[in-house]
């Protein structure tokens, strides 16, 4: 069993475990075993999305675990996400109902708009849908009780500010790429101002991304191959040695210490235990600050979402 995972409280009083299991690239039959192993290792928070095509396996595993009395629904925090073709207000309710069917659940704990840019199923851009419209669709799902909390993913700071101006239900969570080499300081400020909890993805530098093959048969993330990985960072390694922990444990613990939720992905049972056993040692504020003062001269974004380049709501337009 894991050392005790701190619980963060969202602005609507929903409790969210600060460590969850990421499931991008967890596919096929292994999904069921992975979820069982994770629950047995102490995970109570699972992050999925329609994009990951594993909601079915997660649902099957959870149904078995509930039936066996291993865990109760109310003890879990399940997040899923509406992808670009699902975020428009005229399709998002059906999208969530389909996810719930696959997950075999009556509600999720958090539903996120995966990307702020709406498309049609074929991928063509829907320029009629603005982030304010996406938010109104999410608010409706919240009022229907299909999700306990709502939030955004890959939205930039000004898109968050635009929502804040019109929201009836506040943004509970913002999920985005955040790691040592992409510390997202401006985003952290905006979220602090509006009482939004951040979930970081790619905290370990997403080494598995290099195995994703695009439609052209080439690695999708080839252009990021020269970006060094944080697991090899010399400051991280020094702290790992000092505390007799692994570099992954240092990266994850330091991020939680900053008040940020982490969702490391692994299908390996040993790493699964490693990634949640983070709370039997102390890391000082000065050490967390030292990690942040790393030697990269510019932020290193790994995820660029080329499918929404040129969309009026492309969150990375200013950086492309
Ligand atoms: P990550 O968690 O930074 O890295 C996962 C990779 O690191 C996997 O290849 C895993 O391999 C390896 N790994 C895991 N634990 C390790 C350890 N202790 N030591 C060494 N290597 C380890 O990256 P991610 O999967 O991209 O991001 C995490 C989660 O965030 C995703 O799974 C997904 O749920 C979510 N996410 C969300 C978005 C979004 O747009 N909202 C985008 C990307 C990801 P093994 O499986 O072989 O252990």
Automatic annotation (TrEMBL):
Regions annotated as coiled coil: none
Pfam families in UniProt: Aldo_ket_red
Residues annotated to bind substrate: 114
Superkingdom per UniProt: Eukaryota
An annotated Gene Ontology molecular function: oxidoreductase activity
Chain ranges passing through the membrane: none
InterPro entries: AKR, Aldo/ket_reductase_CS, NAD(P)_OxRdtase_dom_sf, NADP_OxRdtase_dom
Residue span, NADP-dependent oxidoreductase domain: 19-295
Residues flagged as site, Lowers pKa of active site Tyr: 81
PROSITE patterns xrefs: ALDOKETO_REDUCTASE_1 (PS00798), ALDOKETO_REDUCTASE_2 (PS00062), ALDOKETO_REDUCTASE_3 (PS00063)
Active site: 52
SUPFAM superfamilies reported in the protein's UniProt record: NAD(P)-linked oxidoreductase
PANTHER family: ALDO/KETO REDUCTASE
Name of protein: NADP-dependent oxidoreductase domain-containing protein
Higher taxonomy: Eukaryota, Metazoa, Ecdysozoa, Nematoda, Chromadorea
């Amino acid at each position: 069993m894991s050392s005790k995972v701190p619980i963060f409280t969202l602005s609507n009083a929903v409790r969210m475990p600060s460590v969850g299991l990421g499931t991008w690239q967890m596919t096929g039959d292994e999904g069921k075993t992975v979820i069982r192993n994770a629950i047995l290792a102490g995970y109570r928070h699972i992050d999925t999305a329609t994009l990951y095509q594993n909601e079915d396996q997660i649902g099957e595993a959870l149904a078995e675990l509930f039936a066996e009395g291993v865990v109760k629904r109310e003890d879990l925090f399940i997040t899923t996400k509406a992808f670009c073709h699902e975020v428009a207000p005229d399709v998002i309710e059906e999208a969530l109902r389909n996810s719930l069917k696959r997950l075999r659940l009556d509600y999720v704990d958090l539903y996120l708009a995966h990307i702020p840019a709406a498309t049609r199923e074929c991928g063509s851009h829907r320029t009629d849908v603005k982030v304010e419209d996406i938010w109104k669709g999410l608010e409706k799902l919240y009022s229907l009780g299909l999700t306990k909390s709502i939030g955004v993913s890959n939205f930039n700071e000004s898109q968050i500010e635009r929502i804040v101006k019109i929201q009836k239900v506040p943004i509970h969570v913002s999920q985005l790429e955040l790691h040592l080499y992409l510390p997202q300081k401006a985003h952290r400020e905006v979220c602090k101002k509006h009482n939004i909890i951040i979930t970081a993805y790619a905290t370990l530098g997403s080494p598995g991304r290099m195995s994703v093959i695009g439609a052209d048969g080439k690695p999708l993330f080839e252009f990021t191959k020269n970006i060094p990985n944080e697991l090899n960072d010399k400051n991280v390694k020094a702290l790992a040695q000092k505390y007799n922990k692994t570099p992954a444990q240092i990266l994850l613990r330091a991020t939680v210490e900053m008040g940020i939720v982490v969702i490391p992905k692994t299908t390996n049972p040993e790493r699964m235990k490693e990634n949640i056993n983070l709370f039997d040692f102390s890391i000082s504020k000065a050490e967390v600050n030292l990690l942040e003062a790393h030697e990269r001269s510019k932020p290193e974004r790994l995820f660029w979402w080329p499918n929404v380049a040129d969309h009026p709501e492309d969150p990375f337009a200013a950086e492309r």
